[in-house]
Specification:
Blueprint lengths: L2 E5 L6 H12 L2 E4 H9 L3 H8 L1 H15 L5 E4 L8 H9 L1 E7 L2 H8 L13 H16 L4 E4 L5 H13 L4
Parallel strand pairs: 1-3, 1-4, 2-3, 4-5
Helix pairs in contact: 1-8, 2-4, 3-4, 6-7
Length: about 170
């Protein structure tokens, strides 16, 4: 069976849902950001501050190339994975892509106390969320399926994904 890939903006529940989904399906769970941290020996925020976003995106693409060679995985990506077309192409080759989404207000509420989100370490994180969402919206829409996570628990989002997988539409 193909991989299940979770894309979407930070704070939409990709990692939480991915862990639950992988257990229910008996798949391996892969958190791309955790793989990056393990292979580089640095936190994502440290990579951003020391080498910048372009280098982080290069590392992210290398990791995507490696992990997409295997099957039966639930892959939770970083929010910016969609910025490179080759990442999406690789993920789609051997996966069904689900975009988890939420409004900018809900995302801000979920992330307002997080200090480990380098792209939000700015004077006005609410404005930054709005800008990034607007910039990436058309890229997230390239997913096979989109699921709004607002007002849902990670378990409920997981059930919606399983319904989509089993209703014959994949």
């Amino acid at each position: 069976m193909k991989n299940i890939v979770l894309i979407g903006f930070m704070g939409t529940g990709k990692s939480s849902v991915g862990k639950i989904l992988s257990k229910k399906l008996g798949f391996k769970f892969i958190d791309v950001d955790k793989v990056i941290e393990k292979t580089t020996g640095m936190k994502i925020s440290e990579i951003f501050s020391r080498f910048g976003e372009p280098r982080f995106r290069d590392i992210e693409s290398e990791v995507i190339n490696l992990i997409t060679q295997k099957n039966r995985q639930v892959i939770a990506t970083g929010g910016g994975v969609v910025l490179r077309e080759e990442n999406m192409k690789k993920l789609k080759e051997n996966g069904v892509i689900f975009c988890l989404k939420a409004s900018e207000n809900v995302i801000f509420e979920r992330l307002k106390h997080c200090k480990d989100r380098p792209l939000l370490q700015v004077e006005n994180p609410e404005k930054r969320i709005k800008e990034l969402l607007e910039k990436r919206k058309h890229l997230y829409e390239k997913a096979d399926f989109c699921i709004d996570t607002e007002g849902l628990t990670p378990e409920q989002v997981t059930e919606k994904i399983i319904e989509r997988l089993t209703d014959g539409k994949t």
